[in-house]
Amino acid sequence: MYEAARWGSAPSQAGTGASITGQAQERGAPAPAPETTGQTSRVSRLFGRIVPTYDLMNRLMSLGQDQAWRRRAAALAAPEPLALGLDVATGTADLALALASRVRQVVGVDVCGPMLPVARAKVARVGRSHQLRFLLSDVYQLPFPDASFQCVTVGFGVRNMADPV
After folding, report:
1. Is 50 exceeded by the pLDDT of residue 29?
2. In 10 A of CB 76, how many CB atoms?
3. C-alpha distance from residue 113 to each of 27, 29, 68, 72, 158 (Å)
4. What is the percentage of the chain residues whose pLDDT exceeds 90?
5. CB under 8 Å to 55, separation ≥6 — which residues?
6. How many CA atoms are closer than 13 Å to the CA of 151, on its beta-carbon side?
7. 49 - beta bridge partners?
8. How far apart are CA 126 and CA 3, in angstroms?
């Protein structure tokens, strides 16, 4: 059902440098939990319609403060420089990019497929494609084993989660 995605070495909890291997799917997502199917579909459709203006809308609605908020969130995640980070509801990758300035690698996941090509293009423009990967995935069914990441971020996406805790 999934294609295996191998991420390089990352410090394990024991500090031995275990390899992170997660199951991921670039073009499809795992089936969401039944109680989130409707919410997930609505969120995906909504954000799929606003992809072209998403970044501009964030800048305007926050009066340009959204980038500073993301840099602060990445700093508060307090990652180690060799950490592997996860950005949930990554959208167009602004928070993933802020996190990537502090860690070795970042995986960005989003339920909205049309956001991911925009994220990949943005990352390529700034020369960080080697450091970030993006996957289509429902936040409630992440395709990674527990403790795969040393830090996890979520920005504005938390407002769309049925149970953000």
Report:
1. no
2. 10
3. 8, 9, 26, 27, 18
4. 44
5. 92, 94
6. 24
7. none
8. 27
Place of tokens 């180690």: 80
> What values do phi and psi take at 17, rounded to 5?
75, 45
- The position carrying tokens 């960080």 is 128
Please state the length of the chain.
165
Check: CB of residue 140 under 8 Å from CB of residue 38: no
Helix (H) or strand (E) holding 5: strand 3-9
Planar angle of CA 22, 117, 143, nearest 5 degrees: 15
User: Pairing state of beta strands 105-110 and 84-88?
Assistant: parallel
Neighbours of 45 (CB within 10 A): 11
| CA–CA gap between residue 18 and residue 89 (Å, rounded) | 26
* Residue 4's pLDDT band (cuts 50, 70, 90): very low
Q: pLDDT at residue 113 above 70?
A: yes
The answer for residues whose C-beta is within 8 angstroms of residue 131's C-beta and 6 or more apart is: 100, 104, 105, 106, 123
